[in-house]
Specification:
It is a multi-pass membrane protein. It is found in: Cell membrane. This protein is of the alpha/beta class and 618 residues long. It has 2 domains: 197 residues, no CATH class; 299 residues, Alkaline Phosphatase, subunit A, CATH 3.40.720.10. Helices cover 44% and strands 12% of the residues. The chain is built from 24 helices and 17 strands. Strand 5, helix 17 and strand 6 form a beta-alpha-beta unit.
Length: 618
């Protein structure tokens, strides 16, 4: 009997071993417990059950079915690896449905890949070649491929299914998807996730019960009858700049004596800097930041807002500003179709949008024209709007410093110490942000020389994290610790800046108050004197209210929340969760987010979901 024939006849055992090795690789990257009894007990039963069915029912095409199953499970393990490296959570069907966007962000996706990940496909290639070659035809003919309908196979199948159910059932209630997947097994979790979504019928709170008073009570704030600065900038233009992948630690950072963001460093000396401000995006990242800032609503669970919420008549900042006499426009050098922005901008109610059709593709960086082009072509448009008979609200979205930060070398403006290798994600990030800061400086100078700076509210914030903790290798983490003076953790990763310039209101200062992107709408509304009495909003006015509760809905497991002092990440339940100090990211067992805060954060997310689902279609 040839070696190939023996392999074919013992296919069940060999394929179990092959998939076990792949599951060990996946679990080691995601959970750090690759080879363990937990891996064997949670991963093997699923594919054993599937292989038993193939043995029982399949005949001469048995090896084809084995190969198809092997390919599908391998692709799923690969997707889990890649998704975790950026998002830090387990991929699910909602995320897999976005695979069509990989072509747009291919460079970003490929940069996450460790070469050895591709080795999990090696066996598929080798076995396929061997089985196709004519020289092995006799070996294939000699193999026993008829159905094996014995009681033993059915007994093994039944036992495997029971073990899968035992893995799944006790962990159904876990809020933490990563813990669920670890305890259930990766394949069990994916199937459970599909079934759970099919059967999920989360109760909806009636819209007449979703009141601003209820939201404020959950957040622990009180609406003031006469808030400070109400209408203090009435009639001023509003310019909101969304900065790509910009994290707060960049401000004031020097590496080898070189300032990374010299223009921003100057700017914070004349504006108000909220240093404990946090990103609140979901799967849609940049487009989700646009959504949160302009609606003061939370992103949906496990989905991009542009995929599920943009068919609704959303209450928004552009609509509010138009009601108060403003013209509105948004500026982005990418194609408007990406992330379904065509529908997003319609739902938000912008008067006009400028996209790739306006900016062209000259001086291409990342997905479109460079930040220099963005600012140089946007400034004259803002000047035109300023000449009109009413003020304007403009949102400007930068993009050049986009992951994986492969800007042209001609854009490099700094040299870093030798330990910052050119192929390091950290190095590329710093150089890209330095270039973005250079372009930003030109824009700010243009606003000032045109007179727009003195006649406008200008807000600047980062859209989302730039350096995913899960993507950094040990050397890059060491570089981050050397730069920051502390370990780079979740609190540093999600910490973005908010810079606020309001003529006659703000002073050069650093504010410790915790806030999030959801707070920008009510803050702007207060400054321009726009009443929110008839508009539901889940953020708070940063100039008047001092309590904050920030539910985190992506990049961390469900149930994660930030309060004024801590970032909380749940375990299987609240009681085995962990708290990390906002000030330095260190884990703490003293104080921490209370169970009441945790439950109130979950209720806020539920109310936001319920509210949007019941809005009329646009």
């Amino acid at each position: 009997m040839s070696l190939i024939t023996r392999f074919l006849n013992r296919r069940f055992y060999y394929f179990v071993i092959i998939l076990l090795i792949k599951s060990i690789v996946a679990r080691d990257v995601v959970f750090g417990n690759g080879f363990s009894w937990l891996t064997i007990m949670t991963e093997i039963p699923f594919f054993v059950a599937v292989f038993c069915l193939i043995e029982f029912f399949a005949g001469k095409r048995k090896m084809l079915y084995y190969m198809i199953v092997n390919l599908l499970f391998t692709a799923l393990y690969f997707a889990i690896l890649m998704y975790y490296k950026y998002y830090g959570i387990i991929v699910n069907t909602d995320a897999l449905s976005q695979a069509n966007k990989m072509a747009e962000v291919g460079e970003s996706t490929y940069s996450l890949m460790d070469p050895y990940y591709l080795l999990i496909f090696l066996d598929i290639i080798v076995i396929s070649v061997v089985l196709i070659l004519p020289r092995f035809r006799k070996a294939r003919q000699d193999a026993q491929l008829r159905p094996v309908r014995s009681k033993a196979w059915m007994a093994v199948f039944a036992l495997s299914v029971v073990v899968c159910l035992v893995n799944v059932w006790p962990n159904r209630a876990s809020m933490n998807e990563n813990k669920q997947a670890e305890e259930m097994g990766l394949l069990d979790y994916e199937v459970y996730n599909i079934i759970d979504k099919m059967m999920e019928k989360e109760p909806i709170t009636p819209i007449n019960q979703i009141t601003q008073a209820k939201i404020d009570e959950l957040k622990g704030i009180t609406e003031q009858a006469s808030p400070k600065y109400f209408g203090a900038a009435k009639g001023k233009n509003v310019i909101i700049l969304q900065m790509e992948s910009y994290q707060d630690f960049l401000i004031g950072l020097k590496v080898g004596g070189v300032e990374i963001t010299p223009n921003m460093n100057k700017l914070v000396q004349e504006a108000t800097h909220y240093k404990n401000f946090y990103t609140m995006v979901g799967q849609g990242t940049t487009s989700d930041a646009e959504y949160v800032v302009n609606t003061s609503l939370y992103v949906p669970k496990h989905k991009a807002a542009t995929d599920v919420n943009v068919d609704k008549a959303l209450p928004s900042l552009p609509k509010l500003m138009k009601e108060n006499g403003y013209y509105t426009a948004t500026f982005h050098t990418n194609a408007v179709e990406f992330w379904n922005r065509t529908e997003l901008y319609s739902a938000l109610g912008w008067d006009k949008y400028y996209d790739q059709a306006f900016y062209g593709d000259e001086d291409h960086v990342a997905f479109g024209a460079s930040d220099e082009v963005l600012y140089s072509k946007t400034l004259p448009e803002l000047a035109k709007l300023d000449q009109a008979d009413k003020p304007f609200y403009a949102q400007v979205i930068s993009m050049s410093a986009h992951h994986p930060y492969n800007i042209p070398t001609s854009k490099y403006r700094i040299e870093l110490p030798a330990e910052f290798k050119d192929d390091s994600l950290v190095t590329r990030y710093l150089k890209a942000q330095n270039y973005a800061d250079y372009a930003l400086g030109q824009f700010i100078d243009g606003l000032k020389s045109s007179g727009l700076w003195d006649d406008s509210i200008v807000l600047m914030y980062g859209d989302h994290q730039g350096l995913p903790l899960y993507s950094l290798d040990d050397n890059e983490k060491a570089l981050m610790k050397e730069m920051l003076g502390t370990d780079y953790g979740h609190t540093e990763m999600f910490n973005i800046p908010l810079i606020m310039h309001v003529p006659g209101v703000t002073q050069p200062s650093v504010v410790d108050k915790v806030g999030g992107q959801i707070d920008i709408l009510p803050t702007v509304a207060n400054l321009v004197g726009a009443s929110l009495s008839n508009q539901i909003h889940f953020g708070e006015d940063l100039l008047n209210q001092s309590s904050e509760l920030i539910p985190m809905r992506h990049f961390l497991p469900s149930g994660s929340v930030i309060d004024n002092e801590n970032l909380f990440v749940p375990g299987i339940e609240y009681k085995d969760g962990t708290n990390h100090k906002v000030v330095d990211g260190t884990e703490t067992t003293e104080g921490g987010v209370t169970e009441d805060e945790y439950n109130r954060a979950l209720e806020l997310l539920h109310l936001s979901d319920s509210y949007v689902q019941q809005l009329p279609h646009k």
